[in-house]
Amino acid sequence: MSDAVVSIIPEMKRKTIEAFVEKAQENDVELKEVKVAPISLVTIGKDEIGNAVVTEREDIAHMSEKRLKKGDSICLDFGDHHVGYVTLKLNSAGSPQDAPAFLRLKFAEIPQEILDDSNTYEGWISKGWIQEEFIHIDVLPCELKLPRRYAFRYLEVLAIDTSQKFQVVVEAAETTAVSAVSMEDVAPLTELPEDLQKIDRASLKTLQDCMQHVFEDGPKRDRRLWIGDLRLQAKANYATFKNLDLVRRCIYLFAGLTRDDGKISACLFTEPVMQADDTFLWDYSLFFISILYDYYKETKDIKTVEELWPAAYRQIELALEDMQDGVLRDDEPLTAFIDWKEGLDRQAAAQGVWIYCLRQGKELAELLGNKEEIAYIQKLLDQALVDAVRAFWDEEQEVFVSGKERQVSWISQAWIVLADVFDKEKSRKLMLGILENKEAVTVLTPYAYHHVIEALLHVDEKEKALEMMRTYWGGMIELGADTFWEAFDPEDPLASPYGNMQVNSFCHAWSCTPAWLLREYFK
Fold first, then answer.
1. What Å distances lie between residue 92 and 97, 98, 345, CA to CA?
2. In this structure, what are the phi and psi dihedrals at residue 340, rounded to the nearest 5 degrees?
3. Which residues pair with 135 in a beta bridge?
4. What strands lie across the sheet with 393-394, from one edge to the other?
C-alpha cells in the first residue's frame, strides 16, 4: 500500500460514509404499487414424471364458498410472480367462533414449494427463509394485513385447527405488488420466435421483481444488494427499464460502505441500518471497477467516475494481497466466487476476471488522465496476460487448466475468453472445444451460464449461444417458471447449493440477463 493511500484512508472513510451514503439516499426511488387479486383456485400435484404442477383449476368466485375446517386448505393462484404485501379478509361460518382459528399460510414462487414439508428441511442456511406463517385469529371476521413482504405466485391457506363448531372462510385476498419499475416500461420483443419471447418476458419479470429500493439478489432470499448480481442487473437494466437512479444509488452505497482499508464487501444490508456485510469475495470486489465502467459507458457521467474512481482503484491494490506468483492463491476455495458448481477450481477463472477488470480499470484511468495509474495498471495487465498462459495454459490439451489438479472447466475458458487472453479465432476454438469436452466440469448457476454464453457471443458464435440459452433458460420455462431461478441443473432440477431446495430463490437477479443479451445481439 502506498504512503499516499495510507494517509487518505481515515479521512476518506470519515467523509465517504456520510457523503456517499447521502448521495445514495438522494437517488432512492419511490416504489410503484399495483393491487393484484388471485385469478383462480388451484390444486397442485405431480405430473407423470414427478414434477410439481397445477393439476386442477377452479373459478376464484368459489373461494368464499369454501368452508375450511381442521385440516382443510385452499390454494390461490395470483397469476404471475409478485413481490408484495398480502391482505386477507377472513370470516367464520357455522356456529359462533368458540376458539381461535389456527392457520398456516404458505407462499410459493413455484408449485414445488406448496408440496414441500418445511419440517424435513436440513440445509445449511437458515430455515427462516422458508415463506410460511402460523397465525392465531382470535376474532372473526377480520382483515388480516401481513406485515412481511413475500415473493410468490401461489398462496396456500391451511386450517391447522378451528373447532368442531365453526369453519374459516377466505372472503377476499389481495397483494400490493411493489417494484421500482413497471413491465409496461419495456417493449416486448415481438419479432423474435415465441420461445425466445417467453424467455425474455421471464427475464424482465425477474429483473422487475428484484428492483426494489436496491437491486436485490432475490426478493425471497437474500433480499440484499450483492455486487456480483448488481453488475449483471445493471447491464440488463440499461437495455430495458433504464432506471439509472437505482444504479447510482447502489454504486454509491458500495463505495461508501467499505471495510476500514477500503475493501468493498460482497453484499450490503440496508436495514435496520446501512452497513457492509463481513463477506468479502475477491472477484466481487474487483467487479466494482466493472460496474463503474459499464455505468460510464451507458451514461457518460464523468463526474461520478471522478468521484468513485479512488474506490475502484483501491480494489486493484487490495486484490494483489490475495495473489502469489501473479495468480490468485488457491489455499481458500471460496476466496473468489465464480460459480456454485461443486468441486470447481476457481483459480484460472479468477485470472480471467483479474485481466477483464484491469482492462476496464485502465480505460477509466485513461478517461481521468492519471498517467501514473495508467502506467501501473498497464504493467499489471501485461504481467497478468503472461501469467495466465504460464500458469494455466496446457499446450498438449489446448485448454486452460486450473489448480493443482489441473482441472478443465467451462467457466475457466469462458473468463479467459472474456479477458481476451488470446485472439478471437483462437478463443473461438477454445470455446467450441470445451463444450465438446465430455470430461470438462460444467456450470451450475445462471450466473455462470451467462458468462459462458457471453463468451460465445464474444467470439461471434451466436447460434451456439442461442442454442444454450434455449436449452438452459428454456428448460426453466418448460418447468413452468414465471421468473428465473438462482440455480438450475437441467439434469437435476431439484438440486440446491444449500443442501435443500426449499430455501432456493426462484426469482434471482443473476438469471435476468437474457433480456439484455437478446436485445444486444439478436434484436
1. 7, 10, 59
2. -90, 5
3. 103
4. 393-394, 399-402, 407-408
- 181 Cβ contact partners less than 8 Å away, ≥ 6 residues apart: 32, 208, 211, 241, 243
Helices in 163-243 by DSSP H: which ranges? 194-210, 227-239
User: Sorting pLDDT into bands at 50, 70 and 90, what band is 334?
Assistant: confident
**Sign of the Cα pseudo-torsion (255, 260, 263, 266, in order):** negative
How does DSSP assign 98-113, residue by residue? -S-EEEEEEEESSTHH
3-state SS class at 440: coil
Rg (CA), the chain: 25
Which range (3-17, 196-210, 262-276, 442-456) has the least confidence? 3-17
Q: Which helix (H) or strand (E) holds 388?
A: helix 371-392
Judge whether 149 and 176 are in contact, CB under 8 Å: no
CB of 153 closer than 8 Å to CB of 80: yes
CA dist., res. 446 & res. 340, Å (int): 10
Mean pLDDT of 218-245: 98
Contact assessment for residue 262 and residue 314, using Cβ atoms and an 8 Å cutoff: yes
C-alpha to C-alpha distance for 277 and 257, rounded to whole angstroms: 9
Gap between the Cα atoms of 357 and 10, Å rounded: 26
Closest CA to 444 of 513, 493, 501: 493
73, 30 contact by CB (below 8 A): no
The rounded distance, in Å, linking the Cα atoms of 378 and 400 is 23
Q: In degrees, to the nearest 5, what angle opens at C-alpha 224 toward C-alphas 220 and 225?
A: 135
Range 23-41 average pLDDT:
97
CB atoms < 10 A from the CB of 119, how many? 6
315 exposure class (CB count in 10 Å sphere: 0-12, 13-18, 19+): buried
Q: How far apart are CA 273 and CA 266, in angstroms?
A: 17
Q: How many Å apart are CA 453 and CA 414, to the nearest integer?
A: 8
Q: In 264-302, which positions are buried (b, 16+ CB within 10 angstroms) versus exposed (e)?
A: bbbbbbbeeebebeeebbbbbbbbbbbbbbbbbebeeee
Other Cβ atoms closer than 10 A to 372: 8
CA atoms within 13 A on the CB side of 349: 28
What cell does 502 get? Answer: 426449499
Q: How is residue 475 written as a grid cell?
A: 428448460
The x, y and z cell numbers of residue 261, run together, are 482499508
407 membership: H or E segment, kind and range: strand 407-408
Output the CA–CA distances (angstroms, integers) from residue 74 to 45, 51, 103, 165, 195, in the order listed.
13, 20, 11, 20, 32
pLDDT tens figures, 252-304:
999 999 999 999 999 999 999 999 999 999 999 999 999 999 999 999 999 99
